[in-house]
Amino acid sequence: MDPTPPKPHGESRLHDLPIDDLLGELSSRIGEIVLGRERLRALLDAVIGIGSDLELAAILDRIVAAACTLVDARYGALGVLDDSGGLADFRTHGLTEAEIVALGDPPTGRGILGHIIDVPEPLRLEDLSKHPASVGFPPGHPPMRTFLGVPVKVGEKAWGNLYLTDKRGGGQFTDDDEDIIKALAAAAGVAIDNARLYGQLADSQAERERLVVFRDRDRIGRDLHDLVIQRLFATGLQLQSIVHLVGEPVAAERVHAAVDEIDGAISDLRAAIFSLHTDADQAFSQTVRGLVGVVRHHLGFTPQVEFAGPVDDDVPELVRIEMLAMLREALSNAARHAKARQVSVRIAVEEAVLRMRVTDDGVGMPAQAPRRGLANLASRTESLGGEFTILPAEPSGTELRWSIPLDPPK
């Protein structure tokens, strides 16, 4: 009977190996363990990274970048599906700006991309050009050979797909690469779902806050109309009813002037109420036309209005609010002081600059005219980083000009 005790399972093979082979085997196993830990740590870092943001666009970009890093891919993309199964969004990583411009419109979901949309399962290829669904690359597209595609699901529904190409070093994507991208895609689905829920909650909260603001505006508008305007109107009627009792011509003239000032104040209040009721979602040009319609009663005619450039798309809300206030004041000044028969308004967006011009054919700006209102216009313009200019119009009248940068330097 052999007195040598039996060796633990696996030990016999190791003891039978030559010493050099044994050291090589141990080194290889240690290398695999270290690599596994490093990739696991990289995956955890990626999951934490994409889960630390609640903005959907930022999350999508982080997912693509993390996927490329985890499997050492030169190029990556994340295609977001629309309701019809096409691509609603396409985020890329690894392409230069020049390459993106050269490619033109993003893909719509044909070829290999369309195959994964139709068959939402992982796909790994040694040469994507040899797949039956391949339709080739458009002009300007960089060459790509190896391919790994994995669906991204939110719940049970395919939400998009991760596409990775060109394993660095010329190798193929491995089983481990596929597993780690599947794990990333699962985490990405959770992060995307959280971001969508957060976005919905934020939209709901913003809508509630917006409703509160509009209720306050409505209350202020009603108070201005029912309390302030009605009292001013009654005061004006009382003054008109007693003006015939004033024997002194100078005093009577002052009463008439006071009535005119009350009429002007009422017109200004009505314009202010209109601004309070203006919806931020309303087109800027439509809001301007509405304001002009409100003040035309005080002017006695409707000003001419002209627009040029993308005034409805490129003017931020803050600039809109300020420009409407300044236009209201400019039109009020024209009604009160210019004695004009025509007033024209031109608003244009040219090279990221909003330009507004209000011109009347009235008596012009008297040298001793009060400058408080004009100083207010200049101050408002300066707060927006713009310029305000007063010029004499030809052949008579006054021209007011504003120039507001829409993309001011930071």
Automatic annotation (TrEMBL):
The name of this protein is GAF domain-containing protein
Specify whether NADP is a keyword of the entry.
no
GO CC field: membrane
Q: Which Gene3D superfamilies match?
A: 1.20.5.1930, 3.30.450.40, Histidine kinase-like ATPase, C-terminal domain
Annotated GAF domain residues: 55-202
Q: Can you give the residue ranges of the Histidine kinase/HSP90-like ATPase domain? A: 318-408
Superkingdom of the organism of origin: Bacteria
Q: Which organism is it from?
A: Glycomyces luteolus
Question: Can the keyword Kinase be found in this entry's annotation?
Answer: yes
Keyword set, alphabetical order: Kinase, Transferase, Two-component regulatory system
**One GO MF term:** phosphorelay sensor kinase activity
Which CDD domains is this protein grouped with?
A: HATPase_UhpB-NarQ-NarX-like (cd16917)
Q: Which SMART domains match?
A: GAF, HATPase_c
InterPro entries given in the database record: GAF (IPR003018), GAF-like_dom_sf (IPR029016), HATPase_C_sf (IPR036890), HATPase_dom (IPR003594), Sensor_HK_TwoCompSys (IPR050482), Sig_transdc_His_kin_sub3_dim/P (IPR011712)
**Which PANTHER family does the record match to this protein?**
NITRATE/NITRITE SENSOR PROTEIN NARX-RELATED, OXYGEN SENSOR HISTIDINE KINASE RESPONSE REGULATOR DOST
